[in-house]
Amino acid sequence: MLTHIPVERHEVVRARFNSSAQVLFDRLSLLYGQQANFEDWVIQLMTRVANVHAQRSDELLSLDAQREANPNWFTQQTMLGYCAYVDRFAGTLQGVNQKIDHLAELGVTYLHLLPFLRARAGDNDGGFAVASYNEIEPRLGNMDDLRDLTQHLRDRGISLCSDFVLNHVADDHPWALAAKSGSSKELDYFYSYADRTQPDIYERDLGQIFPQAAPGNFSFDATLHRWVWTTFYPYQWDLNYTNPAVFEEMALALLELSNNGVEVFRLDSTAFLWKRAGTNCMNQPEAHWILQALRSIVAIAAPGVLLKAEAIVPTAQLPAYFGTQNPATPECHLAYHSSLMAASWGALAEQNAELIYNVMQATPPLPDQTSWLTYIRCHDDIGWNVIRPEANQDNQNAQERLRHIAQFFAGAANSFARGASFQASDANAVHGTNGMSSALTGFASASTPQELELAQRRLLLLYGVSFCFGGMPLIYMGDEIAQANDENYINVPEYANDSRWLQRPFLDQAAFNARHDRATQSGNLFAQLCHLLERRRSLPMLAAATPITVLRHRNSALLTFVRGESTNTSTNTSNANNALLFIGNFSDQAQTLVLNQLSLPSPINSWLDQLTQQHYTDTIVIEPWSQHWLSAA
Ligand code: OTU
């Protein structure tokens, strides 16, 4: 089975195989054990995995070894992510090389470039309709450019993260084309139905991702004369993971990309991988088994690689993506905390931190060797539905509450925000909100220097929560220079019905070039953001694994939590020096806090603000939308 592999590699793979094979085999048996020739198929799969491993470069092999020896490498407070579209940030993959200095000045250690594989011709959902998993989108470069870029990034301590769209392929992917031209083998890579009977049954329990632009979950394909499962746009065909060939091809494609230097995979839409009638076809146990099997394969053939779950699901469903159901079956290393993100914006609209407290209280501690991906904006909408359970608390009605929040960000009367409701012509709908951070925090509506200052505080406050909560924070391109909404998307026919393009601008060169000039708006924000980042790096208690204690304060304009010290176990107070108290004011009024009234395990009489180096004794006044990072002085 491992015949063509040089002896040393043979040994390395064998050792990893021995420790991960059982979980892999169990997962594959659960998924595919009833298939004819199951065991032959597993051998074929493992032979292919071993052959791809045999092609892995010496440099990547030593990276694997380093990370195996230090499996918490990505959970440190020195980790920082940055996310951008290749073309909008830097033109091409080669162009990204010229931006590495900028990433370094922020302290970035992880760069997520949005989809750069060859995409569907025509509309392609910003590259999320992939036509080929082993080719680069030609206008962005080629595979050599990708390898070079990952090498240059690695030399500067930055890991490249690539999207891996594993739930669906484009309708012009070779599998879809083969299916359309009559091949039953490839037809079986998809879910398709001769009539509406089955789709109608499923549809009773399914949600809608793009209710306006792409209603329903099935699309009639005129060539096939069949209804194809298309959770997202009609040209994104969901893959049929009941077919082991689909799992095999996708696992191999991922490993090939990892051999080209990709170090992190953002597993897109992971919640949707398995369908079950009578459910919303999200978060099914089989979807987790698929991810666990994938993790085992990575553990064998590319253990330096990280898997990141993009599961935009309610807080209660998130931890399962780490594999917490059973520590013996780890799943993804990283997962987006979309609830914390949405709740942070909700708190800003409500001038009240309750939603954040609710989310924090619903978030269990991280398992070892995992980390949240914390963020405030990304290329998608802020989806409000994930925080329905938290919005139902505090004696409130989630629908009303979220509607109010969505209206606020769409620019309701007296709102400082200038965003747009997503997939709803009706401003009362609660589906999602679009807009750049700067537009949502008030930069666009500010007409005086004072208002601009407040907008900046709000943006920094949300980033402050993301930096201190515990996880790897991600900066979304343009946020560091307060880049505005891109209103031009409306003039591009293929973007016009998808207002997520509002937050996908080309980098504003003028603002970017002015970022070191503190007299400019972008320069002022940039300096302050860099300051928060520099402070964060210096505070080891902000590493992902450090416990968090939520101090739910009776003045809920204030968000207060402690990192690094449990207030419940008053037995050990000696590590108070290693703790950090975060205080953020979500309201437009200054708030006074008597520090000793917080339920800390032991009174701390003298505090040092890690952001300003100011000292406080027992009372602190927190200006509107300001934050303090206090440690015992
Ligand atoms: C993901 O998104 C991507 O981030 C989107 O950009 C893609 O359009 C989509 O998949 C299809 O590939 O449901 O859990 O705006 O939050 O579509 C994954 C809605 C998803 C997104 C949603 C999301």
From TrEMBL:
SMART domains: Aamy. One of its GO terms (biological process) is carbohydrate metabolic process. InterPro entries: GH, GH13_cat_dom, Glyco_hydro_b, O16G_dom_2. SUPFAM superfamilies: (Trans)glycosidases. Transmembrane segments: none annotated. Residues 83-511 form the Glycosyl hydrolase family 13 catalytic domain. PANTHER family: ALPHA AMYLASE CATALYTIC REGION, ALPHA-AMYLASE FAMILY MEMBER. This is Amylosucrase.
